[in-house]
Amino acid sequence: MNTKYEECLKACIECLEACNNCFDACLKEEHIKMMAGCIRLDRECADVCSYAAQAITRNSPFVQEICKLCAQICDACGEECGKHDHEHCQKCAEACRKCAEACRQMVA
Amino acid sequence: MNTKYEECLKACIECLEACNNCFDACLKEEHIKMMAGCIRLDRECADVCSYAAQAITRNSPFVQEICKLCAQICDACGEECGKHDHEHCQKCAEACRKCAEACRQMVA
Amino acid sequence: MNTKYEECLKACIECLEACNNCFDACLKEEHIKMMAGCIRLDRECADVCSYAAQAITRNSPFVQEICKLCAQICDACGEECGKHDHEHCQKCAEACRKCAEACRQMVA
Amino acid sequence: MNTKYEECLKACIECLEACNNCFDACLKEEHIKMMAGCIRLDRECADVCSYAAQAITRNSPFVQEICKLCAQICDACGEECGKHDHEHCQKCAEACRKCAEACRQMVA
Fold first, then answer.
1. Is B72's CB within 8 Å of A62's CB?
2. Which InterPro entries does the record match to this protein (chains A, B, C, D) (predicted)?
């Protein structure tokens, strides 16, 4: 694998981890009602990152299209998580931003 | 859920089943070398159909984009499987064509 | 595929749909705090049902172990959803009970 | 997350990568017929590693059961890949052994 692939894979895994940590933590928050958007998008984003990681490593003929979709979902999740001050949300927003960028590098 | 959603979900599940049946059968074929493209695309297509089924049923904000990707991968898998006379390949090609059509109806 | 396989596959897909419908509906509930357990288990259960559907249709050598795990997660999700009066929870609990039973028939 | 979790997650991701690299490479081998078992188990193993990575990071109530299943599938994939001299098979067999060990540490 070349560097671009390895960096994108790493960013996808770190984003999957941050999104799932945020999903778990949001479900335990006292004021969960305001976290509903986060919970939904954390799952969406973890799932597309997992799907992209599989696609990258198996040399999928559709890796470009899948990474493009991943970047789009990372953007949405990062925007929502970025609105909340919880540490798990801020970490998730940062991981989403990095993953979206790495996925765009794959497509470029 | 409305009719369009239910029809797309049904088509995705039937396509997932046909692709995975074809994957299993191709791996048992005497002349497996010529089936390598089928095996690869059967997995790609089963995975995107599974992903689309999850997206449709959880009311994903990205269901349009995911169904668009699913249609594209179904097209490729159906084209490859359609080249082979094995019954499992022909059934898979037909399921791919129906699923691509149903996914395009979702996006329309 | 034989009848036992087809029935288990059908039960997994219906359970996946009911769990994801419940996940989506729980996130929109006014009193979401009491639904946190449901939301978590709906995702767990939809994911294992999706995994089992893939395993059944690709003739996985581990289909017995995967269906056993699926039955266990369906039990937990069905028990949690059964505590809530929302129609989406009651439908989910029923789908989980049927899927757990079908998975146990696969393993028997 | 504690150390045991982080090590298991890392081992799952490295195993997913090795299995998918091996899947891709096996499909390109001249003597693909003898690789059919590898191709099937590479997909099984990559999928359960992906599933385990999601379970670990979202604090799944079923992480023990999922890691136990993952160890079992890694054992089978590692045994099959270990029979072949291709570098991708040997690397995969080694990743499977490490992942099975890390998953057993999670369950212990």
1. yes
2. Csp_YhjQ (IPR005560), YHJQ-like (IPR044543)
